[in-house]
Amino acid sequence: MLTAVPKADVHFMKWILHCGNDEFCVKVLKNCWEALPPTGKVVAVENVIPEYPRTDQLSQSLFLMDVNVLRMRISGKQRTRREFAELALASGFHAPKYVLRVYDLWLIELHRKM
């Protein structure tokens, strides 16, 4: 399993943080944190589900994806903004910055705390 991450100014991840439980995600993010310079960041592309279910097509699509992730990986799940913030803070990052949404994917920046 992921034991080290190469040194870099930016680490890019797509669909990694929905693959595991909170413990897995914190471990991955802490490894990234250790490999970043003080001004470094992690850029993640992930689905972000609403805190409460809504009836619009985007929400329904996201919750269906959550069921599919659970079917493929018993410990995997889609996360809300609050859950991403908890992961970021537990890993030594500032709260996530949601930069851009394209369809059901968000580009999320995690900036290292100094």
Describe this structure as you would to a colleague:
This protein starts with 9 loop residues before the first strand and ends with a strand. It is built from three helices and four strands. A four-stranded mixed β-sheet has the order 1-2-4-3, with helices on one face. It is globular, with a radius of gyration of 14 Å. It is 35% helix and 22% strand. It has 114 residues and is of the alpha+beta class. A hairpin with a 2-residue loop joins strand 3 and strand 4. The chain has helices at residues 22-35, 57-72, 81-90; strands at 10-14, 41-47, 97-102, 105-111. The model has no long low-confidence stretch (mean pLDDT 88).
Q: What's the topology here?
A:
Blueprint: E1 10-14, H1 22-35, E2 41-47, H2 57-72, H3 81-90, E3 97-102, E4 105-111
Parallel strand pairs: 1-2
Antiparallel strand pairs: 2-4, 3-4
Q: What's the gist of this structure?
A:
The protein has helices spanning 22-35, 57-72, 81-90; strands at residues 10-14, 41-47, 97-102, 105-111. With 114 residues, it is an alpha+beta fold. The longest helix has 16 residues, at 57-72.
* Beta-strand content bin: 15-25%
Mean pLDDT over all positions = 88
Describe the oligomeric state of these chains in a short phrase: single chain
Question: How many β-strand stretches?
Answer: 4
H/E element sequence: EHEHHEE
Q: Which geometry do the CA atoms define?
A: globular
- Find the structural class using helix and strand composition: alpha+beta
Main sheet makeup: 4 strands, mixed
The separation of the N and C termini measures: 27 Å
The poorly predicted ranges are: none
* Approximate helicity band: 25-40%
